UniProtKB/TrEMBL annotation:
This is unspecific monooxygenase. Belongs to the cytochrome P450 family. GO terms for molecular function: heme binding; iron ion binding; oxidoreductase activity, acting on paired donors, with incorporation or reduction of molecular oxygen, reduced flavin or flavoprotein as one donor, and incorporation of one atom of oxygen. CDD domains: CYP2C-like. The keyword Lipoprotein does not apply. PANTHER family: CYTOCHROME P450 2C9, CYTOCHROME P450 508A4-RELATED. It comes from the Eukaryota. Transmembrane segments: none annotated. Its cofactor is heme. GO terms for biological process: organic acid metabolic process; terpenoid metabolic process; xenobiotic metabolic process.
Length: 490
């Protein structure tokens, strides 16, 4: 058959499929802009700033509306009330993982982040239990974080107060903490293999946040047949998984069933116990992908938050001064900060919370999906429909946080200067799919930031008012702009 005829027929089939999918059950779905064949609503969405587009749509269609990303039908939840109702009040029904084609190409449904059904439940339960047994939120993990904080400070001293880009230094610390949990190993900050891992993670986060990835997710055939940065992303993921697989093979030769050293050992022991269970989810594939999920999620999100935090502290020296005053009063100079200090340091705690709220690290969350046909606010959402939850609409709610576009620690302080909790604080998402490493991340952010400010003054290279804190990309993640600073020893 003539290739041209094949192309025309293929496009015609896609057009008919698009029209059929968009019309089926349309009357029962939440309202939304009329989609075009094949492209859906993509021409009406600013792929460089999806959050802004979602806010504009919500003003027209309300807090629950339907968008079509290419052929993919997506229901968007915008605002605290609907996000809470779906992810918390009806958590089981909204606990599926929605379509994320680029990630699906890399993970193939394995691991803890992009898996579904029984596999997700078993792997998540095991991962949470194992992290807890290794002290997440307890003393042993705190010891690891404090040890890494000392290494971080030593590395910062080596800059000798000269201008430096903090990206890799701030990435190494949380990466080493998660490496100690997964591999029972920390790396020297100059280790080339370690630096390669860090570079791939950093590059992958930037690629994930580009408009091109949104296009690939909307038109999955692009992933397999078109050139583009998605190929670099998939290559980075494959290389990191190869590194993890090497570590797994090393562990297989030395694992002691009575003395597990780390997450990999615990998983291998579980595999051994279930070796006669044909339906077991504890396989080498799931081990590698779960370790990768923990490694990636436990490194880049925390390091990006730390990098953004220092930029905001440079921009607001009056905030930095108040934090250092509180550190001096509560911790002093003769010991390292510990997690117990946080309850006595309301202003510092408020600053850490405000950093996470303000930067809005993962604006549209990872996609969810409904696990059955769901009747939600007089609409019928069919089983498997992808659900996009706008965390921006929660973290930047102007009723809960007056002037939400302004960095202001008083968003988390009451009139007496005491720390004030907020149900709207959802940087780790919420509900059944809340980040498994939330406790670890919160501990790291507090201990790393207080340790740095206990030992160094932060000096910008330009006038603070000239510092730009606008993210350079704002897709999957909000990535801070490049900057340099000097760490001046106190």
């Amino acid at each position: 058959m003539d290739p041209f005829v094949v192309v025309v027929l293929s496009l015609s089939c896609l057009l008919l499929l698009s029209l059929w999918k968009q019309s089926s059950k349309r009357g029962k779905l939440p309202p939304g802009p009329t989609p075009l064949p094949i492209v859906g609503n993509l021409l009406q969405i600013d792929v460089k700033d999806i959050t802004k587009s979602l806010t504009n749509f919500s003003k027209v269609y309300g807090p629950v509306f339907t968008l079509h990303f290419g052929l993919e039908r997506t229901v968007v939840l915008h605002g605290y009330e609907v996000v809470k109702e779906a992810l918390i009040d009806r958590g089981d029904e909204f606990s599926g993982r929605g379509h994320f084609p680029v990630a699906e190409r890399a993970n193939r449904g394995y691991g803890v982040i992009f898996s579904n059904g029984n596999r997700w439940k078993e792997i998540r339960r095991f991962s949470l239990m194992t992290l807890r047994n290794f002290g997440m939120g307890k003393r042993s993990i705190e010891d690891r974080v404090q040890e890494e904080a000392r290494c971080l400070l030593e590395e910062l001293r080596k800059t000798e107060a000269s201008p430096c880009d903090p990206t890799f230094i701030l990435g190494c610390a949380p990466c080493n903490v998660i490496c100690s949990i997964i591999f029972q190993k920390r790396f020297d900050y100059k280790d080339q293999q370690f630096l390669n891992l860090m570079e791939r993670l950093n590059e992958s986060t930037k690629i994930l946040s580009t408009p091109w990835i949104q296009i690939c997710n909307s038109f999955p055939p692009f992933i397999d047949y078109f050139p583009g940065t998605h190929n670099k992303l998939l290559k980075n993921i494959a290389l990191t998984k190869s590194f993890i697989l090497e570590k797994v093979k090393e562990h297989q030769e030395s694992v002691d069933i009575n003395n597990p050293r780390d997450f990999i050992d615990c998983f291998l022991i579980k595999m051994k116990k279930e070796e006669h269970n044909q339906q077991s989810e504890f396989t080498i594939e799931n081990l590698v992908h779960t370790a990768f999920d923990l490694f990636g999620a436990g490194t880049e999100t925390t390091s990006t938050t730390l990098r953004y935090a220092l930029l905001l502290l440079l921009k607001h020296p009056e905030v930095t001064a108040k934090v250092q005053e509180e550190i001096e009063h509560v911790v002093g100079r003769n010991r390292s900060p510990c997690t117990q200090d946080r309850s006595h340091m309301p202003y510092t705690d408020a600053v850490v919370h405000e950093v996470q709220r303000y930067i809005d690290l993962i604006p549209t969350n990872l996609p969810h999906a409904v696990t059955s046909d769901v009747q939600f606010r007089n609409y019928l959402i069919p089983k498997g429909t992808t659900i996009l939850t706008s965390l921006t609409s929660v973290l930047h709610d102007n009723k809960e946080f007056p002037n939400p576009e302004k960095f202001d620690p008083h968003h988390f302080l009451d009139e007496g200067g005491n720390f004030k909790k907020s149900n709207y604080f959802m940087p780790f998402s919420t509900g059944k799919r809340i980040c498994a490493g939330e406790g670890l991340a919160r501990m790291e952010l507090f201990l790393f930031l207080t340790s740095i400010l206990q030992n160094f003054n932060l000096k910008p290279l330009v006038d603070p008012k000239d510092l730009d804190t606008t993210p350079v990309v704002n897709g999957f993640a909000s990535v801070p702009p490049f900057y340099q600073l000097c760490f001046i020893p106190i």
